[in-house]
C-alpha cells in the first residue's frame, strides 16, 4: 500500500459507505509542504524586480501555493534571496534564516546571490551558501520569471523526496570548535586561497 | 496666504537672459567662467589658485585653509546665494605624484549657477580639509561617505564616522588607489568578521529616537547601549 518510495500514489479504498485513503505519511506531509511554500522575500537588487514579476498576475506564483509573501521570517517556509548580499547584510541574512521555523528551505536567485556574480570585490559576499544552506540555485542575471518558477518546481520536487526519518535534513549546525570536523579560519584561508594568490592583487594592475 | 519675504520662488522662464538654463554647445575647454569665479578672485585673491572652465562648467581650485570662509561667503553673499550643496567627493589619480582632489558641487538656485570647488591635497601630508557642515547641513552624510571611502578627515564635522562600511571595518578606505579590489583580508576572514557583528547593535543612543523609551528596552540591549556601544563585534 504505497510503502515503497517509488509509488507514492494514494489509493482510494472503498469499504462500507465511507471511502478512505491509504498512503505513506511522508508523501502526505511532503505533498502538503511542497504545495504551500510561503516565501520570505529577501530582495536586495534587480533580481527582486523579476521576483515581483513572478509574483504578479502574469506569471502568478500563487499557482504553486505561494499565495502570500511572508514578510515575517517566523511565518515563512522558503527564503528567496534575490540579489547581491554585501558583507554588511551578512549577519542580517543569517539572523533572518535563524528566525525561520523548521522545516525551511532556501533559494538563491541569480548569479550574485549564488556566487557574488560580477561583484568580485571587497564589499559583496561570494555566494550566500557561505552564510546559510541553499537548496536551489537559480542561474541568470537576473533570471526570468520562468527560471525562478523552474527553481521553485525543483524545490517542490526536492521537498517531495524528503523522508521524515532522515533527521539530518532538519538539523541546524553551528561550527563547533571542539569537533573533529572543525577547521580553524587560518587553515581555511590557506585552503581557500585562489590559484595565483589573486586575492591580493587589484584588477587595475596597480 | 502670506509669503516669506526672503524666499523668491524660481518660476520656469523667469531667469534673466544673461544666464540661460542650459548653455548650448559649450566648448570642451575655455569659455566664459561663472561670474562667481571672478567675484571669488576679487574677494579672496590668492586663496583662489586656479579657475578652469570645462564643458561650460566652472571649477575653482581654492586654498584648503580658507575653504570654510569661502563656502560661507558663497552661501551668504546676496549676489551668490549658493544654497544647495549637491555632492562632496574626492578624486585620486593613478599617477602617484598627483595630489588628491576633494570636490564640492554647489548650486545657486536663485541665480541658476553651478560651481565646482576643489581643494588639492598633496600626497604624504595628512588628508584633512575643513568641513562645510556649518554652511550646508547636507554636508553631514556626504562628508561621512567621503571619509569612509577615501579616508579624508573633515575638520569640524560633528560626527565623522563611517557610513557605508561598518564602523569596525579594518581594511582601510576602499576607493583609494592602493586598496586591492577584493579587500585586504581573505574571503573567510572578511566573512568571519561580518558574521561576528550583531545586526541589532547598529546604532548608538544618540541616533535612535528610542532614547526616551530606554526603560522599555530589553535588558541586554539596555546594558549594551548604556555602556556606549555602537556596533556589535
Outline of this structure?
The complex is a heterodimer of chains A (about 210) and B (about 230). With about 210 residues, chain A is an alpha/beta fold.
Word description of this protein:
The complex is a heterodimer of chains A (206) and B (233). Chain A is α/β, with parallel strands linked by helices. Chain A has a domain of 134 residues: Rossmann fold. Helix content of chain A is 29%, strand content 13%. The radius of gyration of chain A is 21 Å and the shape is globular. The C terminus of chain A is likely disordered. Chain B is α/β, with parallel strands linked by helices and 233 residues long. Chain B is globular and about 60 Å long. Chains A and B meet through helix 3 and helix 6 of A and helix 4 of B.
Strand % of chain A is 5-15%
User: Would you count the extended β strands of chain B for me?
Assistant: 7
Shape of chain A: globular
Pair of chains with the largest interface and how many residues each contributes: A-B, 28 and 29 residues
Q: Which CATH C-level class of the domain at 35-174 in chain B is it?
A: Alpha Beta
Computed Rg of chain B? 22 Å
Shape of chain B: globular
Mean pLDDT of chain B: 83
Q: In DSSP terms, counting alpha (H) and pi (I) runs of 4 or more, how many helices of chain B? A: 5
CATH superfamily of the domain at 35-174 in chain B: NADH:ubiquinone oxidoreductase Nqo5 subunit
CATH topology of the domain at 35-174 in chain B: Beta Polymerase, domain 2
Tally of individual helices of chain A: 6
Task: Supply the CATH architecture of the domain at 37-170 in chain A.
Answer: 3-Layer(aba) Sandwich
Helix content estimate of chain A = 25-40%
Overall strand count of chain A: 6
Strand order of the largest sheet of chain B: 1-2-5-4-3
Cα-to-Cα separation, first versus last residue of chain B:
54 Å
CATH topology of the domain at 37-170 in chain A: Rossmann fold
Amino acid at each position: 500500500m504505497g510503502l515503497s518510495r517509488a509509488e507514492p500514489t494514494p489509493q482510494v479504498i472503498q469499504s462500507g459507505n465511507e471511502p478512505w485513503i491509504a498512503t505513506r505519511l511522508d508523501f502526505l506531509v511532503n505533498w502538503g509542504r511542497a504545495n504551500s511554500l510561503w516565501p520570505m522575500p529577501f530582495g536586495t537588487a534587480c533580481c527582486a524586480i523579476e521576483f515581483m514579476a513572478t509574483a504578479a498576475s502574469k506569471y502568478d506564483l500563487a499557482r504553486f501555493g505561494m499565495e502570500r509573501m511572508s514578510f515575517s521570517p517566523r511565518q515563512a517556509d522558503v527564503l528567496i534571496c534575490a540579489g547581491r548580499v554585501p558583507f554588511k547584510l551578512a549577519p542580517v541574512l543569517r539572523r533572518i534564516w535563524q528566525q525561520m521555523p523548521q522545516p525551511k528551505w532556501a533559494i538563491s536567485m541569480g548569479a550574485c546571490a549564488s556566487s557574488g556574480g560580477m561583484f568580485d570585490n571587497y564589499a559583496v559576499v561570494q555566494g550566500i551558501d557561505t552564510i546559510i544552506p541553499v537548496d536551489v540555485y537559480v542561474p541568470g542575471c537576473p533570471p526570468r520569471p520562468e527560471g525562478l518558477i523552474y527553481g521553485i518546481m525543483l524545490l517542490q520536487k526536492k521537498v517531495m523526496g524528503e523522508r521524515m526519518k532522515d533527521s539530518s535534513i532538519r538539523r541546524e549546525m553551528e561550527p563547533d570548535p571542539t569537533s573533529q570536523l572543525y577547521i580553524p579560519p587560518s587553515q581555511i584561508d590557506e585552503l581557500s586561497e585562489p590559484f595565483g594568490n589573486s586575492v591580493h592583487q587589484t584588477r587595475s594592475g596597480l | 496666504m502670506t509669503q516669506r519675504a526672503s524666499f523668491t520662488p524660481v518660476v520656469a522662464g523667469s531667469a534673466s537672459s544673461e544666464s540661460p538654463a542650459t548653455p548650448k554647445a559649450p566648448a570642451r575647454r575655455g569659455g566664459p567662467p561663472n561670474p562667481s569665479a571672478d567675484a571669488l578672485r576679487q574677494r579672496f585673491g590668492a586663496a583662489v589658485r586656479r579657475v578652469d572652465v570645462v564643458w561650460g562648467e566652472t571649477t575653482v581650485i581654492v586654498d584648503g585653509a580658507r575653504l570654510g570662509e569661502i563656502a560661507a561667503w558663497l552661501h551668504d553673499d546676496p549676489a551668490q546665494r549658493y544654497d544647495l550643496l549637491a555632492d562632496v567627493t574626492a578624486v585620486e589619480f593613478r599617477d602617484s605624484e598627483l595630489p588628491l582632489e576633494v570636490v564640492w558641487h554647489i548650486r545657486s538656485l536663485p541665480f541658476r549657477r553651478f560651481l565646482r570647488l576643489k581643494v588639492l591635497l598633496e600626497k604624504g601630508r595628512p588628508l584633512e580639509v575643513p568641513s562645510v557642515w556649518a554652511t550646508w547641513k547636507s554636508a553631514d552624510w556626504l562628508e561621512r561617505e567621503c571619509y569612509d571611502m577615501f579616508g579624508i578627515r573633515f575638520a569640524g564635522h560633528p560626527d565623522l564616522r563611517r557610513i557605508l562600511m561598518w564602523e569596525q571595518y579594518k581594511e582601510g578606505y576602499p576607493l583609494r588607489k592602493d586598496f586591492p579590489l577584493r579587500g585586504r583580508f581573505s574571503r573567510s576572514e572578511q566573512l568571519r568578521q561580518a558574521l561576528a557583528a550583531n545586526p541589532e547593535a547598529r546604532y548608538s543612543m544618540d541616533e535612535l529616537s528610542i532614547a526616551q523609551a530606554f526603560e522599555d528596552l530589553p535588558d541586554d540591549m539596555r546594558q549594551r547601549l548604556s555602556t556606549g556601544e555602537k556596533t556589535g563585534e
